[in-house]
Amino acid sequence: MKAVLSGIGAALLLLVVVLVARTAMVPAPESFPSSPSPVVFSKEQAAAMTQRLSRAIQFPTLAGQADAFASFHAFLEQAFPLAHASLSRQAFGHSLLYHWESSNDCAPILLLAHQDVVPVSSPEDWLQAPFAGAIESGYLWGRGAMDDKGSLMAILESVEALLAQGQSPACDVWLAFGHDEEVGGVQGAGKMAAWMLSEGLQFAMVLDEGGMVLPGATLGIDKPVALIGIAEKGYLSVILTAQGGAGHSSRPPEQTAIGELSRAIMMLQASPRPAFLNGATRQMLEQVAPWQPWGKRVVFANLWLFEPLVLQQLASKPDTNALIRTTMAPTMLSAGVKDNVLPATAEAVINFRLAPGENRETLMTWLEEALPATVNARIAEGFFAEPSAISPVDSSAYQQLSVLAEGLPAAPVAVPFLLIAGSDARHYEALSGNVFRFLPASFEREDVARFHGANERLALSQYPAMVAFYASVMTSAF
């Protein structure tokens, strides 16, 4: 027995030594010196830029609103005369593709943003009218301020400012502004990407919306974090259908179509897809380890041991649970025609966001095995996307982008990130091995709900910094 206890004690001691040694190997926190921005704005110039963004918000560029897009395009030509005189422009439906040539022989970059916005379901919940572009209380309010006209306008503002100062980009710059991102991007980004691929274009970097600067408290650090999306989840909607006998509601059978469908949904929610810690999420945790207090640094530096504990913590909150598994959300229900008639069928639409490593085949196989025989599943018609590839964090493109992100006014720590939503970036994977998703603005945690929600807004102090960021991107070689 003494020998056994002695062996256990030695093993525990060895484990402690390994944990401490691995933690000690975590590099010290490092901050990269930021380069001065190639553009600087006076208060008057910043105010003028804000007014132009306000005007852009006033065009309700919703899917199918052809007149709104046409008017918005005319406004862009008037607002940015130097850009439209110096850059070539092609139209793909309502989507716009610009090209700014450089005199240098280096790989081009591609900057993305989208013109379209989502509808406003409850305008009475807004403090300011959704399409008024109101400037109030230090914010610019309106649908599109965050998603994604803020980025689109900031990109064009940076081009205009550089041209006004006689500057040119380090390498060729392409700008792709889709018109249907909110409904999948097939007609806009999809067609622009296909054309560029047919032309043999390859980019050193592709940059779209996605992550942003947020408080680091969620990751256990005091400094803000710049979440640079290096991958995004897939998108798949599935229709579940349950069959039942139609008839009078006064004589209900033991099992009804609605009851069977409800039980199936509850069963799926009670048995979520497996959680795992790899790819972008694992890299995110490893990169914030240097800024952690000692206790948490031990955990993040030794994920090989503490992974189950970390997964348990991440799974406890919806926003972090989405980082570690494929998620499902019932979004639509349909059954019945009258309150006293039993429906013959009941249907539900389940929206799945596929984690990297999952695909359509594995998900449908799981559904076929998990669902009861009374419920069947089929893929809904419409937009579908597999999870994206994961862009490398050891590339010069990611390192350069990280330096620029850490030079933002909040002085954040740049970390890789899995985008749980979708973006137009997924259409451009064949054009670059470095596809990133980052919105260069700081927000609070509660602001995330404003994306597609009520009271979308952008702090006035953030906008000039966004313009300066994009100007730095264009004058940098990746």
Mind explaining what this structure looks like?
This protein is 35% helix and 21% strand. It is an alpha+beta fold and 478 residues long. The chain folds into 2 domains: 43-231 and 388-474, Aminopeptidase, CATH 3.40.630; 234-379, Alpha-Beta Plaits (2-Layer Sandwich). The strands form 4 sheets. Strands 1, 2, 3, 6, 7, 8, 15 and 16 form an 8-stranded mixed β-sheet that branches. The chain starts with a helix and ends with a helix.
CATH fold node name of the largest domain: Aminopeptidase
- Tally of extended strands? 17
Distance between the termini: 63 Å
CATH architecture of the largest domain: 3-Layer(aba) Sandwich
Number of helical elements: 14
What name goes with the CATH superfamily of the largest domain?
Zn peptidases
Mean pLDDT: 93
**Percent helix among the residues?**
25-40%
Low-confidence stretches are none
State which percent range the strand residues make up.
Answer: 15-25%
Short descriptors:
eight-stranded mixed β-sheet; 14 helices; Aminopeptidase; single chain; 2 domains; alpha+beta; Alpha-Beta Plaits
Task: Please sum up the structure shown.
Belongs to the peptidase M20A family. The chain has 478 residues and is of the alpha+beta class. The protein has helices at residues 2-24, 43-57, 66-79, 81-86, 149-164, 189-198, 257-270, 279-288, 294-301, 303-315, 318-321, 360-370, 396-406, 462-474, and strands at residues 88-92, 95-100, 109-114, 135-136, 139-141, 173-178, 205-214, 225-232, 234-243, 247-248, 327-335, 341-342, 345-354, 375-379, 413-419, 435-442, 457-459.
